[in-house]
Amino acid sequence: EAPGAVTFTGNAVSLINGCNVMSNSLSDNSLIVTGSADITMPCALAAGGVSVDEGLTLTDCPEAQQNVPPAADPFKDLPEPDLTGPCLTMPSGMGTETLSPGRYCGGGSLKGDKTLSPGVYVIDGGDFNINATANVVGEGVTFYFTNDATADFNGTANIELSAPTSGTYKGVLMYGDRDNSNTVNKFNGTADSQMTGALYFP
């Protein structure tokens, strides 16, 4: 019943290709498009109500649909990754670096040019930030957020991330622990930024 469970705001230009956006929240404001957000998607749907302005463009539906039956969870059987690895620390400097998959404890902030090697990145607690000046790229990556970890990607960062194309986490870019509380995750970026894959926060 969370209000604004799916919210698009700010002045970003966003294009969602080939996927509808659905909020299962029963709130009167389940799905929100506001501010100067400019977003295009096939269809926007909500189990509750919708609050959208002229910034929403739909290519396959005449208008945002509300009070529709909640969507079944397409990832209900997706297993959690291994959480027993040693705690790693994200690099904090501006230098060019390559990160390896693993368990990163306490969050961290990425700055400068960072390349993520393919694999699963467990964010165990804290805030995972991509700062304003960062240029972060990674193919075949999945982020798993546990222990109430959150994501906050800055609006002027350049972000190019894509999910694996095979294996357990095929097509899943972000995965939130089902035991997390009502955390807020913010995904911003430049107009050229691309995140390819499902953002799954049950």
What would your notes on this structure say?
This protein is mostly beta strands and 202 residues long. Helices cover 0% and strands 41% of the residues. The protein is built from no helices and 23 strands. The protein starts with 5 loop residues before the first strand and ends with a strand.
Give a short summary of the structure.
This protein is mostly beta strands. It contains no helices and 23 strands. It has strands spanning 6-8, 13-15, 21-23, 31-33, 38-41, 44-46, 50-52, 56-58, 87-88, 97-99, 102-105, 108-110, 113-116, 119-124, 127-130, 135-138, 141-146, 150-153, 158-162, 172-176, 186-187, 194-196, 198-200.
Which structural class matches the secondary elements?
Answer: mainly beta
Q: How many runs of DSSP E, i.e. beta strands? A: 23
Radius of gyration: 17 Å
Mean of residue pLDDT values: 89
Low-confidence stretches: none
Distance between the termini: 13 Å
Main sheet overview:
6 strands, parallel
Count helical runs: 0
**Physical arrangement of strands within the biggest beta sheet:** 9-11-14-17-20-23
What proportion of the residues form beta strands (DSSP E)? Answer: 35-45%
> What would the principal axes of the Cα set say about the shape?
globular
- H/E topology pattern: EEEEEEEEEEEEEEEEEEEEEEE
Indicate the percent of residues in helices: under 10%
List key phrases describing it:
globular; six-stranded parallel sheet; mainly beta; 0% helix; five-stranded parallel sheet; 202 residues; single chain; 41% strand
